[in-house]
Design a protein that fits this description.
The complex is a heterodimer of chains A (252) and B (267). Chain A is an alpha/beta fold and 252 residues long. In chain A, 40% of the residues lie in helices and 24% in strands. Chain A contains ten helices and ten strands. Chain A is globular and about 55 Å long. With 267 residues, chain B is mostly helical. The chains are: A alpha/beta (252), B mainly alpha (267).
Chain lengths: 252, 267
């Protein structure tokens, strides 16, 4: 198999006495959608924040194309940041900016594109995500589903190589949920980006992912193709897929 | 180990921890200021954002500055007249009003009013952005949050504070004239002649120096508290409200402290 694009080796992360990640190992391959599943609060979002550099691991290494992110120069780190995009669970749209300004912001601040080029890019992106005539609206005037799609437009507008999606379908109705999953899948095929999705949406994620990894009690207990995960004999995995909390059952 | 030994040990330990935290906090605040200042010019001056902030911090404060300036001058006119008339020196009213305003009251009161109107808003706005992951979103987009959020506010304040202070001084001197001359009968010509003759360029420069220093203090403290809202024990809206209150209280105290320090150097 090829060298992973992103690799986590023995990553540990603690918040006070709470160990969130304990010797976590994961490989993310170029051009694939890797979905991380696991119960709420097991550290899936923390993992994405470690990858993008919003947090630093207590120990362990995160490699990008085989090079540790902790060891690369500032210029290389800037280059890495330009290739990666993040869609936040709560959208994190700037509430004092209009939809247009939100989506245009990364282009205005980090590229040398002219304003008419930025306008074209933003309008193309908004129309591709089925967001029409909302340019001048503020995030507070949008529905939850629309906010998610605007956040996705902002994440994709810079044409990133890697996109991290933190629970992109939380709070959406089933129709919008399917639309977002389709969108991730279609866009991944169209733009060939590498996607890392944190999601609970089973079985939907099996249809959009090339790889699935399950995080449980700070470690990845399984990693593989969707059919391998479905066929796994590990009872924790099977119970999660079926919606049974094995740890809670043990405690009871 | 006796109880007294344990108490002393705990006291020393807590004192040491407090000192280390305090020194670290001051260091972080200093770095925050240095970064915010240099990002005004690097990579380029963000003229549009600075103009927006000048409008918010400066232009929108004009009414409140005029109002407080007028009443401060009027009170100075009243108090000054009744005090000076006892010594037969009501002719010095113009000097008293003008020097009090230009040297002290103008810069200090302007800073206090801007803290209340714009400083609290800065702390709350940045605090909300912090807890709703908007600041993190800037990091992920490779946009420096200090450069994006703090530097334009700092530049705008450095420009706005001296202008607002001079407006406060001017309106205050006119307020002193209204009460001292128009209401109480002090001679108008002597009032303005004293204003003109007693105010030296050094007084005006000193007032401007103070207003620039207060601008830096107010913006850095308010933005720093907002920026670090997520590090508080209290989360969410409560964290933002406590950050905002702390920003207002600390910046007000620091305005008075720096005023004393600057005055002792300028006199």
């Amino acid at each position: 198999m090829d060298q992973p694009l992103i690799q986590l080796i023995g990553v540990n992360k603690k918040f006070g006495s709470n160990t969130v990640l304990h010797d976590a190992n994961l490989s993310i391959y170029k051009g694939e959608v890797t979905t991380i599943i696991g119960k709420s609060g097991v550290g899936k979002s923390v993992l994405l924040k470690l990858i993008i550099g919003l947090m630093d691991p207590d120990s362990g290494r995160i490699l990008f194309n085989g090079t540790s992110l902790a060891e690369i120069s500032k210029t290389e780190k800037k280059g890495f940041k330009k290739k990666i995009s993040y869609m936040f669970q709560g959208s994190a749209l700037f509430d004092f900016m209009t939809v247009f300004e939100n989506v245009a912001l990364p282009l205005m601040e980090t590229t040398s594109l002219k304003s008419d080029e930025i306008e074209t890019c933003v309008h193309n992106m908004l129309s591709q995500l089925d967001l029409h005539n909302i340019d001048e609206r503020y995030p507070s005037q949008l529905s939850g589903g629309m906010k998610k799609r605007v956040a996705m437009a902002r994440a994709l507008v810079i044409d990133p190589e890697i996109v991290l999606f933190d629970e992109p379908t939380t709070g959406l109705d089933p129709i919008r949920k399917n639309a977002v999953h389709d969108m991730i899948s279609n866009y991944q095929k169209k733009f060939k980006f590498t996607g890392v999705v944190v999601s609970h949406e089973i079985p939907d994620i099996f249809y959009i992912s090339q790889r699935v990894a399950m995080l449980d009690r700070g470690r990845f207990i399984i990693e593989g193709k969707p059919e391998e995960i479905r066929a796994a004999s590990n009872p924790v995995v099977q119970n999660f897929i079926k919606g049974i909390d094995i740890h809670r059952s043990e405690e009871l | 180990m006796t109880a007294i030994t344990v108490t002393v040990k705990n006291f020393v330990s807590n004192l040491g921890k407090f000192t280390i935290d305090y020194v670290q906090g001051m260091g972080k605040l200093g770095l925050f200021f240095i970064k915010a200042f240099f990002y005004i010019f690097i990579p380029s001056i963000q003229i549009k954002k600075i103009l927006e902030q000048i409008y918010f911090i400066g232009m929108k404060s004009v009414f409140v500055i005029c109002l407080t300036g007028a009443f401060t001058g009027m009170v100075l006119g009243l108090q000054g007249y009744y005090t000076l008339v006892r010594f037969g020196s009501e002719g010095a009213l113009g000097s008293v009003v003008a020097l009090s305003l230009i040297r002290e009251m103008g810069p200090v009161f302007t800073a206090i009013m801007v803290i209340g109107r714009a400083g609290s808003a800065m702390a709350a706005e940045i605090g909300i952005m912090r807890i709703s992951e908007q600041v993190d979103a800037l990091y992920t987009m490779d946009i420096n949050p200090i450069s994006f959020l703090v530097s334009p506010r700092l530049a705008a304040s450095i420009i706005s504070f001296p202008i607002l202070t001079s407006l406060f001084d001017l309106i205050g001197i006119l307020g002193g004239y209204v009460t001292g001359s128009l209401l109480l009968g002090a001679n108008t010509g002597i009032y303005f002649a004293k204003v003109e003759s007693s105010v030296l360029m050094a007084d005006v420069t000193g007032g401007f120096v103070k207003s620039v220093v207060f601008a830096v203090v107010v913006v850095i403290i308010c933005c720093y508290y907002g920026f670090n809202t997520h590090k508080r024990k209290e989360y969410g809206a409560k964290g933002v409200s406590i950050s905002t209150t702390a920003a207002v209280v600390v910046s007000c105290i620091l305005v008075f402290v720096t005023d004393y320090v600057l005055t002792s150097f300028l006199l």
